[in-house]
Amino acid sequence: MSFRFAAPDAQALPLHLVETDGLEGWLAGQPDSVRGWVETSGFAGAIGEALLLPGEAGQPVAALAGYGSAAARRRTRFALAAAVAKLGGGTFRIASGLPVGKAEEEALGWLLAGYRFTRYAGSEGKTARLVAPDGIDAEKVEILAAAEALTRDLVNTPASDMGPQELEDAARALAKEFSAGIEVVSGAALEEGFPMIHAVGRASPRAPRLIDLRWGSAGPSLTLVGKGVCFDTGGLNLKPGSSMGLMKKDMGGAANVLGLARAIMALGLKLRLRVLIPAVENSVSGNAFRPQDILTSRKGLTVEINNTDAEGRLVLADALALADEETPDLIVSMATLTGAARVAVGPDLAPFYTDDEPLAAALSAAGTAAADPLWRMPFWEPYEARIEPGIADLDNAPAGGMAGSITAALFLRRFVTETPRYAHFDIYAWQPSPAPARPKGGLGQGPRAILGALPQALGL
């Protein structure tokens, strides 16, 4: 797939975005033939509607795309993308109706509407092309689309073809493309230096590892940590089948940080980037870690295991401890960590946690601007006691079933003690039903917001 705009000099049909309450006004300025065609077609300007306008010889000379009402657009991200599939395979230039402040969002949505996951079946097909609207940074939008496509491809690939080794291969390919350095810790070195990553992954024949990518030599330092649980059976606390069905996406945090890293490197941001991915498969075998085991983390904190299905925070904890040892200017962790987050905000919002008020404000504003919605959640300190079991320093699965996303975030924060700025994202990384620019399947959640917040957060 090529996530690129058509050349500026391409032969392109003019495309008019028409709101439902603006259709009559638009038609008033058109010849009788156009008014008759539009009225006969039943086009009403609703989001998702599209109509080609024929010339005298019958060939299309322009097109309309429904842009709905203001109320409808508040409920629909990437409203223009809903019409792309109905425009056929032509090339278009937006001639009217696009609000200036929405140009980048709608242009990105158009490119993402062309995404297809075709590794196992199907074909890319023909997607209508767009000449980049005036006033946007077309190259940046293309980079964002390619980064999102990488994330989606990684999440959509089943665990049979996306285990720890394949995740490492994807990171190595990215490092090669952008001349980044990469190291991978595995085997005895992993067991000694990252005992909780090793414990979670040791039951699988697919060896666990820690992937460590570095890029950039000047500027502020940013470390991204992504949960790379390539499949999660739940371990000895085995998930029921209904809960295991989507567990190929449990490496969605890793996929999101790799997509974000791609965007950062392709844009050439002046910073020092580090990406840490604990890559494991949480399996069942005779040497699986057990409920009530006590693990000693890289940081030295002991953790009582009260549920082997709360493994994501364990592998992240060791990776966060390593990140914290270097005290970067900012650490961001991303993980498909808790079902509690989905209960709290559903699949469409990415909850995030931070103690840093300016960072929180920057992230929230950037999420709105980038059509990458976030919702801040609290590091609620009165719940700290819930993750302190008494027999060990920490409990990986507090009893009671309440505030699960918050207690997981509090658990992770215990491993970031030297770095003053930290944000954690508890994402879903999955689109459960098709929506404009977002087919059912793997999804980036948070990277565009983080990218948009970096200039303010790091002084770029």
UniProtKB/TrEMBL annotation:
Residues 307-314 form the Cytosol aminopeptidase domain. GO terms for cellular component: cytoplasm. PROSITE patterns: CYTOSOL_AP. One of its GO terms (biological process) is proteolysis. Its EC number is 3.4.11.1. Pfam families: Peptidase_M17, Peptidase_M17_N_1. Keywords: Aminopeptidase, Hydrolase, Manganese, Protease. CDD domains: Peptidase_M17. It comes from the Bacteria. It is an enzyme of class 3 (hydrolase). The keyword Membrane does not apply. The keyword Hydrolase applies. One of its GO terms (molecular function) is metalloaminopeptidase activity. InterPro entries: Leucine_aapep/pepB, Macro_dom-like, Peptidase_M17_C, Peptidase_M17_N_1. Belongs to the peptidase M17 family. This is Leucyl aminopeptidase. It comes from Salipiger abyssi.
